[in-house]
Amino acid sequence: MFRQPSRTSAATGAVNPVRVCDTTLRDGEQAPGVTFTEKEKLTIAAALDDVGVHAIEAGIPAMGSAEQEALRRISEAGLRAEVVAWCRATREDVEAAVGCGMKSVHLTIPVSDLQLEHKLGRDREWAARRVRECVLAAADRGLAVSVGLEDASRADDGFVIEIAGELRRLGVTRLRWADTVGVLEPFTGHERLARLVQAVPGAWEIHAHDDFGLATANTLAAVRAGFTWVSTTVAGLGERAGNAPLEEVAMALRHLFRSDPGLDTTRFRALACLVAQAARRPLPTGKAVVGHSVFAHESGIHVDGVLKAAENYEPFDPAEVGGRRRLVVGKHSGRAALRHVLATHGIQADADEIETFLDSIRARASELKRPLRPREVRDLFQRASA
Ligand SMILES: [Zn+2]
After folding, report:
1. Strands, E, within 124-211: which ranges?
2. CATH number of the CATH domain containing 92
3. pTM for this entry
4. Which of 44, 225, 290, 385 has the fewest CB atoms lying closer than 10 Å?
5. What is the pLDDT of residues 109-166, one digit of tens each?
Protein backbone atom coordinates (compact mmCIF):
# COMPACT_ATOMS: atom_id res chain seq x y z
CA MET A 1 0.00 0.00 0.00
CA PHE A 2 1.35 3.39 -0.94
CA ARG A 3 1.15 5.92 1.83
CA GLN A 4 0.91 9.62 1.11
CA PRO A 5 3.37 11.17 3.53
CA SER A 6 4.45 14.73 3.03
CA ARG A 7 6.72 14.00 0.12
CA THR A 8 6.95 17.71 -0.52
CA SER A 9 10.07 18.44 1.47
CA ALA A 10 11.16 20.54 -1.52
CA ALA A 11 7.93 22.53 -1.31
CA THR A 12 8.50 26.14 -0.48
CA GLY A 13 4.96 27.36 -0.03
CA ALA A 14 1.69 27.58 -1.88
CA VAL A 15 1.26 29.70 -5.01
CA ASN A 16 -1.79 31.03 -6.83
CA PRO A 17 -4.14 28.52 -8.49
CA VAL A 18 -2.82 27.70 -11.94
CA ARG A 19 -4.76 27.12 -15.14
CA VAL A 20 -3.54 25.18 -18.13
CA CYS A 21 -3.72 26.11 -21.81
CA ASP A 22 -2.61 23.07 -23.77
CA THR A 23 -1.19 23.65 -27.24
CA THR A 24 -0.49 20.07 -28.35
CA LEU A 25 -2.80 20.57 -31.33
CA ARG A 26 -1.02 23.77 -32.42
CA ASP A 27 2.60 23.98 -31.21
CA GLY A 28 2.73 20.20 -30.81
CA GLU A 29 1.71 19.66 -34.39
CA GLN A 30 4.36 22.17 -35.47
CA ALA A 31 7.03 19.67 -34.40
CA PRO A 32 8.97 18.70 -37.54
CA GLY A 33 7.25 15.95 -39.48
CA VAL A 34 4.23 15.74 -37.19
CA THR A 35 0.77 15.92 -38.68
CA PHE A 36 -2.57 15.00 -37.13
CA THR A 37 -5.64 13.95 -39.08
CA GLU A 38 -8.94 15.66 -38.28
CA LYS A 39 -10.07 12.51 -36.47
CA GLU A 40 -6.87 12.46 -34.39
CA LYS A 41 -7.31 16.13 -33.57
CA LEU A 42 -10.85 15.53 -32.35
CA THR A 43 -9.79 12.50 -30.30
CA ILE A 44 -6.87 14.37 -28.71
CA ALA A 45 -9.06 17.41 -27.98
CA ALA A 46 -11.63 15.16 -26.26
CA ALA A 47 -8.88 13.43 -24.26
CA LEU A 48 -7.42 16.79 -23.17
CA ASP A 49 -10.92 17.84 -22.15
CA ASP A 50 -11.33 14.64 -20.11
CA VAL A 51 -8.05 15.44 -18.36
CA GLY A 52 -9.56 18.83 -17.54
CA VAL A 53 -7.22 21.38 -19.15
CA HIS A 54 -8.80 24.82 -19.04
CA ALA A 55 -8.06 25.88 -22.62
CA ILE A 56 -7.14 24.01 -25.79
CA GLU A 57 -5.22 25.85 -28.49
CA ALA A 58 -6.62 23.79 -31.31
CA GLY A 59 -5.03 25.04 -34.51
CA ILE A 60 -4.30 27.85 -36.96
CA PRO A 61 -7.22 29.00 -39.17
CA ALA A 62 -4.83 30.58 -41.68
CA MET A 63 -3.58 27.10 -42.58
CA GLY A 64 -6.50 26.50 -44.89
CA SER A 65 -9.80 24.74 -45.25
CA ALA A 66 -8.87 21.36 -43.70
CA GLU A 67 -7.53 23.04 -40.54
CA GLN A 68 -10.58 25.32 -40.43
CA GLU A 69 -12.92 22.35 -40.64
CA ALA A 70 -11.05 20.61 -37.81
CA LEU A 71 -11.26 23.79 -35.71
CA ARG A 72 -14.96 24.11 -36.42
CA ARG A 73 -15.62 20.53 -35.34
CA ILE A 74 -13.55 20.84 -32.16
CA SER A 75 -15.27 24.10 -31.19
CA GLU A 76 -18.67 22.45 -31.76
CA ALA A 77 -17.79 19.28 -29.84
CA GLY A 78 -19.27 20.56 -26.58
CA LEU A 79 -15.99 20.52 -24.68
CA ARG A 80 -15.73 22.12 -21.26
CA ALA A 81 -12.38 23.68 -22.16
CA GLU A 82 -12.17 27.01 -23.96
CA VAL A 83 -11.22 26.22 -27.58
CA VAL A 84 -8.80 28.78 -28.96
CA ALA A 85 -7.57 29.49 -32.49
CA TRP A 86 -3.99 30.68 -32.89
CA CYS A 87 -3.63 33.70 -35.16
CA ARG A 88 -0.94 36.06 -36.31
CA ALA A 89 -1.86 39.66 -35.56
CA THR A 90 -3.51 40.21 -38.92
CA ARG A 91 -7.09 40.98 -39.88
CA GLU A 92 -7.02 38.10 -42.38
CA ASP A 93 -6.24 35.61 -39.61
CA VAL A 94 -8.98 37.05 -37.42
CA GLU A 95 -11.48 36.77 -40.26
CA ALA A 96 -10.39 33.17 -40.93
CA ALA A 97 -11.07 32.38 -37.24
CA VAL A 98 -14.51 34.01 -37.45
CA GLY A 99 -15.13 32.04 -40.65
CA CYS A 100 -14.76 28.72 -38.88
CA GLY A 101 -17.01 29.65 -36.00
CA MET A 102 -14.35 30.30 -33.35
CA LYS A 103 -15.33 32.25 -30.27
CA SER A 104 -11.83 32.71 -28.90
CA VAL A 105 -8.59 33.75 -30.57
CA HIS A 106 -4.99 34.05 -29.51
CA LEU A 107 -3.21 36.82 -31.41
CA THR A 108 0.57 36.67 -31.62
CA ILE A 109 2.94 39.58 -32.14
CA PRO A 110 6.74 39.42 -32.02
CA VAL A 111 8.18 41.84 -29.46
CA SER A 112 11.95 41.35 -29.71
CA ASP A 113 13.87 43.81 -31.88
CA LEU A 114 15.60 40.77 -33.32
CA GLN A 115 12.41 39.23 -34.72
CA LEU A 116 10.78 42.56 -35.58
CA GLU A 117 13.78 43.61 -37.64
CA HIS A 118 15.06 40.33 -39.03
CA LYS A 119 11.78 38.50 -39.51
CA LEU A 120 9.39 41.29 -40.42
CA GLY A 121 11.55 44.33 -41.26
CA ARG A 122 9.51 46.34 -38.74
CA ASP A 123 9.97 48.19 -35.47
CA ARG A 124 8.42 48.43 -32.00
CA GLU A 125 6.03 51.18 -32.98
CA TRP A 126 4.65 49.05 -35.79
CA ALA A 127 4.19 46.07 -33.44
CA ALA A 128 2.29 48.13 -30.89
CA ARG A 129 0.04 49.65 -33.55
CA ARG A 130 -0.55 46.37 -35.36
CA VAL A 131 -1.56 44.36 -32.29
CA ARG A 132 -3.79 47.18 -31.09
CA GLU A 133 -5.68 47.26 -34.41
CA CYS A 134 -6.08 43.49 -34.41
CA VAL A 135 -7.31 43.29 -30.84
CA LEU A 136 -9.93 45.93 -31.62
CA ALA A 137 -10.92 44.14 -34.84
CA ALA A 138 -11.27 40.81 -33.02
CA ALA A 139 -13.28 42.41 -30.20
CA ASP A 140 -15.54 44.03 -32.83
CA ARG A 141 -16.23 40.56 -34.20
CA GLY A 142 -17.30 39.41 -30.73
CA LEU A 143 -14.24 37.23 -30.10
CA ALA A 144 -12.60 36.61 -26.74
CA VAL A 145 -8.99 37.70 -27.20
CA SER A 146 -5.71 36.73 -25.61
CA VAL A 147 -2.38 38.02 -26.89
CA GLY A 148 0.98 36.29 -27.15
CA LEU A 149 4.19 38.29 -26.95
CA GLU A 150 6.46 36.23 -29.17
CA ASP A 151 10.17 36.06 -28.34
CA ALA A 152 9.55 38.05 -25.14
CA SER A 153 12.56 36.42 -23.48
CA ARG A 154 14.87 38.17 -25.97
CA ALA A 155 12.91 41.43 -25.94
CA ASP A 156 13.57 44.61 -24.01
CA ASP A 157 11.62 44.28 -20.76
CA GLY A 158 10.72 47.97 -20.83
CA PHE A 159 9.02 47.55 -24.20
CA VAL A 160 7.22 44.42 -23.04
CA ILE A 161 5.84 46.33 -20.05
CA GLU A 162 4.76 49.19 -22.28
CA ILE A 163 2.95 47.03 -24.85
CA ALA A 164 1.43 44.80 -22.16
CA GLY A 165 0.09 47.83 -20.28
CA GLU A 166 -1.52 49.10 -23.47
CA LEU A 167 -3.11 45.69 -24.12
CA ARG A 168 -4.53 45.56 -20.60
CA ARG A 169 -6.06 49.01 -21.13
CA LEU A 170 -7.72 47.62 -24.26
CA GLY A 171 -9.31 44.93 -22.11
CA VAL A 172 -7.07 41.94 -22.92
CA THR A 173 -7.26 39.84 -19.79
CA ARG A 174 -4.75 37.10 -20.62
CA LEU A 175 -1.27 37.80 -21.93
CA ARG A 176 1.23 35.14 -22.94
CA TRP A 177 4.96 35.63 -22.40
CA ALA A 178 6.77 33.38 -24.83
CA ASP A 179 10.27 32.04 -24.43
CA THR A 180 10.11 31.25 -28.12
CA VAL A 181 13.58 29.78 -28.57
CA GLY A 182 13.96 28.41 -25.05
CA VAL A 183 16.76 30.69 -23.85
CA LEU A 184 15.31 31.63 -20.47
CA GLU A 185 16.85 30.26 -17.29
CA PRO A 186 14.79 29.98 -14.13
CA PHE A 187 16.80 32.27 -11.81
CA THR A 188 16.98 35.52 -13.76
CA GLY A 189 13.71 34.45 -15.42
CA HIS A 190 11.98 34.52 -12.06
CA GLU A 191 13.29 38.01 -11.30
CA ARG A 192 12.28 39.41 -14.69
CA LEU A 193 8.82 37.88 -14.58
CA ALA A 194 8.13 38.97 -11.00
CA ARG A 195 8.95 42.57 -12.04
CA LEU A 196 6.66 42.19 -15.04
CA VAL A 197 3.70 40.95 -12.98
CA GLN A 198 4.23 43.81 -10.56
CA ALA A 199 4.34 46.38 -13.38
CA VAL A 200 1.42 44.89 -15.32
CA PRO A 201 -0.88 42.92 -13.00
CA GLY A 202 -3.45 40.47 -14.33
CA ALA A 203 -3.42 37.04 -15.89
CA TRP A 204 -0.07 36.10 -17.41
CA GLU A 205 0.67 32.84 -19.19
CA ILE A 206 4.12 31.33 -19.60
CA HIS A 207 4.97 29.58 -22.86
CA ALA A 208 8.34 27.88 -22.48
CA HIS A 209 10.41 25.89 -24.97
CA ASP A 210 12.84 23.18 -24.03
CA ASP A 211 15.96 23.98 -26.06
CA PHE A 212 18.15 23.81 -22.94
CA GLY A 213 15.95 21.26 -21.16
CA LEU A 214 14.60 24.02 -18.90
CA ALA A 215 10.99 24.37 -20.08
CA THR A 216 9.46 22.85 -16.95
CA ALA A 217 11.83 24.71 -14.62
CA ASN A 218 11.11 28.01 -16.37
CA THR A 219 7.37 27.35 -16.23
CA LEU A 220 7.60 26.78 -12.47
CA ALA A 221 9.74 29.90 -12.08
CA ALA A 222 7.03 31.90 -13.84
CA VAL A 223 4.34 30.47 -11.57
CA ARG A 224 6.44 31.36 -8.56
CA ALA A 225 6.72 34.89 -10.01
CA GLY A 226 2.91 35.23 -10.10
CA PHE A 227 1.93 33.81 -13.50
CA THR A 228 -1.44 32.05 -13.31
CA TRP A 229 -1.56 30.29 -16.67
CA VAL A 230 0.84 27.72 -18.09
CA SER A 231 1.13 26.70 -21.73
CA THR A 232 1.96 23.02 -22.19
CA THR A 233 1.95 20.17 -24.67
CA VAL A 234 1.50 16.47 -24.04
CA ALA A 235 4.91 14.88 -23.42
CA GLY A 236 6.48 18.17 -24.52
CA LEU A 237 5.76 17.67 -28.23
CA GLY A 238 6.54 20.89 -30.10
CA GLU A 239 8.88 22.99 -32.20
CA ARG A 240 12.53 21.83 -32.07
CA ALA A 241 13.16 20.40 -28.58
CA GLY A 242 9.51 20.90 -27.72
CA ASN A 243 7.49 22.67 -25.04
CA ALA A 244 6.91 22.34 -21.31
CA PRO A 245 5.30 18.91 -20.90
CA LEU A 246 1.75 18.99 -19.49
CA GLU A 247 2.33 16.03 -17.20
CA GLU A 248 5.64 17.29 -15.76
CA VAL A 249 4.26 20.73 -15.04
CA ALA A 250 1.03 19.44 -13.50
CA MET A 251 2.75 16.90 -11.25
CA ALA A 252 5.45 19.35 -10.17
CA LEU A 253 2.78 21.94 -9.35
CA ARG A 254 0.85 19.38 -7.28
CA HIS A 255 3.76 17.83 -5.42
CA LEU A 256 6.39 20.54 -5.28
CA PHE A 257 4.36 23.74 -5.29
CA ARG A 258 1.17 22.63 -3.54
CA SER A 259 -0.83 24.25 -6.33
CA ASP A 260 -2.80 21.50 -8.00
CA PRO A 261 -4.35 22.65 -11.30
CA GLY A 262 -7.15 20.13 -10.64
CA LEU A 263 -6.52 17.83 -13.59
CA ASP A 264 -7.43 14.14 -13.80
CA THR A 265 -3.79 13.05 -13.81
CA THR A 266 -4.71 9.35 -13.85
CA ARG A 267 -5.25 9.81 -17.60
CA PHE A 268 -1.74 11.16 -18.28
CA ARG A 269 -0.08 7.92 -19.36
CA ALA A 270 -2.94 7.03 -21.75
CA LEU A 271 -3.00 10.58 -23.14
CA ALA A 272 0.76 10.53 -23.75
CA CYS A 273 0.46 7.18 -25.57
CA LEU A 274 -2.40 8.53 -27.68
CA VAL A 275 -0.42 11.60 -28.75
CA ALA A 276 2.78 9.59 -29.32
CA GLN A 277 0.85 7.25 -31.60
CA ALA A 278 -0.80 10.07 -33.56
CA ALA A 279 2.51 11.94 -33.86
CA ARG A 280 4.40 8.77 -34.84
CA ARG A 281 6.92 9.65 -32.14
CA PRO A 282 7.46 6.88 -29.60
CA LEU A 283 7.61 8.05 -25.99
CA PRO A 284 11.16 7.78 -24.63
CA THR A 285 11.09 4.95 -22.09
CA GLY A 286 12.54 7.16 -19.37
CA LYS A 287 10.31 10.17 -20.11
CA ALA A 288 9.48 11.81 -16.80
CA VAL A 289 6.03 10.93 -15.42
CA VAL A 290 4.74 9.04 -18.49
CA GLY A 291 7.66 6.91 -19.76
CA HIS A 292 7.27 3.12 -19.75
CA SER A 293 10.19 2.60 -17.38
CA VAL A 294 9.82 5.41 -14.88
CA PHE A 295 8.20 3.15 -12.30
CA ALA A 296 10.34 0.09 -13.03
CA HIS A 297 12.90 -0.94 -10.43
CA GLU A 298 15.82 -3.28 -11.02
CA SER A 299 18.78 -2.59 -8.76
CA GLY A 300 18.94 -4.71 -5.62
CA ILE A 301 18.89 -1.88 -3.11
CA HIS A 302 15.96 -0.13 -4.80
CA VAL A 303 13.80 -3.22 -5.18
CA ASP A 304 14.41 -4.18 -1.58
CA GLY A 305 13.45 -0.63 -0.55
CA VAL A 306 10.32 -0.52 -2.72
CA LEU A 307 9.16 -3.90 -1.42
CA LYS A 308 9.43 -2.53 2.12
CA ALA A 309 7.68 0.78 1.34
CA ALA A 310 7.14 2.16 -2.18
CA GLU A 311 7.90 5.74 -1.19
CA ASN A 312 11.47 4.73 -0.41
CA TYR A 313 12.19 5.07 -4.13
CA GLU A 314 9.12 6.65 -5.70
CA PRO A 315 8.21 10.36 -5.53
CA PHE A 316 4.49 9.61 -5.98
CA ASP A 317 2.18 6.66 -6.55
CA PRO A 318 2.37 5.48 -10.21
CA ALA A 319 -1.42 5.10 -10.19
CA GLU A 320 -1.69 8.88 -9.85
CA VAL A 321 -0.63 9.21 -13.49
CA GLY A 322 -2.06 5.95 -14.80
CA GLY A 323 1.30 4.22 -14.52
CA ARG A 324 2.22 0.84 -13.03
CA ARG A 325 5.04 -0.19 -10.74
CA ARG A 326 7.20 -2.98 -12.16
CA LEU A 327 9.95 -4.92 -10.45
CA VAL A 328 12.38 -5.96 -13.11
CA VAL A 329 14.96 -8.73 -12.88
CA GLY A 330 18.26 -7.98 -14.61
CA LYS A 331 21.98 -7.48 -14.22
CA HIS A 332 21.58 -5.27 -11.13
CA SER A 333 19.04 -7.41 -9.32
CA GLY A 334 19.52 -8.52 -5.76
CA ARG A 335 18.26 -11.33 -3.61
CA ALA A 336 14.99 -9.65 -2.58
CA ALA A 337 13.84 -9.16 -6.17
CA LEU A 338 14.67 -12.72 -7.12
CA ARG A 339 12.94 -14.15 -4.09
CA HIS A 340 9.90 -11.96 -4.89
CA VAL A 341 9.67 -13.02 -8.56
CA LEU A 342 10.15 -16.69 -7.75
CA ALA A 343 7.53 -16.48 -5.02
CA THR A 344 5.01 -15.12 -7.55
CA HIS A 345 5.51 -18.46 -9.36
CA GLY A 346 5.06 -20.38 -6.13
CA ILE A 347 8.78 -21.18 -5.88
CA GLN A 348 10.50 -20.95 -2.50
CA ALA A 349 14.27 -20.85 -2.94
CA ASP A 350 16.78 -21.11 -0.12
CA ALA A 351 19.62 -18.64 0.41
CA ASP A 352 22.26 -20.79 -1.32
CA GLU A 353 20.07 -21.38 -4.36
CA ILE A 354 19.40 -17.64 -4.67
CA GLU A 355 23.11 -16.87 -4.38
CA THR A 356 24.09 -19.25 -7.18
CA PHE A 357 21.13 -18.24 -9.26
CA LEU A 358 22.08 -14.53 -9.16
CA ASP A 359 25.17 -15.28 -11.26
CA SER A 360 23.08 -17.00 -13.95
CA ILE A 361 20.65 -14.07 -13.97
CA ARG A 362 23.45 -11.53 -14.40
CA ALA A 363 25.04 -13.53 -17.19
CA ARG A 364 21.76 -13.99 -19.04
CA ALA A 365 20.68 -10.33 -18.71
CA SER A 366 24.09 -9.14 -19.96
CA GLU A 367 23.84 -11.51 -22.89
CA LEU A 368 20.33 -10.32 -23.82
CA LYS A 369 21.01 -6.65 -22.96
CA ARG A 370 17.58 -6.37 -21.35
CA PRO A 371 15.76 -7.38 -18.19
CA LEU A 372 14.36 -10.90 -17.96
CA ARG A 373 10.65 -11.55 -18.09
CA PRO A 374 9.21 -13.23 -14.98
CA ARG A 375 8.63 -16.44 -16.94
CA GLU A 376 12.26 -16.43 -18.13
CA VAL A 377 13.39 -16.10 -14.53
CA ARG A 378 11.28 -19.07 -13.55
CA ASP A 379 12.51 -21.23 -16.47
CA LEU A 380 16.13 -20.32 -15.82
CA PHE A 381 15.75 -21.22 -12.15
CA GLN A 382 14.10 -24.51 -12.92
CA ARG A 383 16.84 -25.40 -15.42
CA ALA A 384 19.54 -24.36 -12.95
CA SER A 385 18.12 -26.48 -10.15
CA ALA A 386 17.23 -29.49 -12.34
ZN1 LIG B 1 5.94 27.84 -29.08
Report:
1. 144-150, 174-179, 203-208
2. 3.20.20.70
3. 0.93
4. 385
5. 999 999 999 999 999 999 999 999 999 999 999 999 999 999 999 999 999 999 999 9
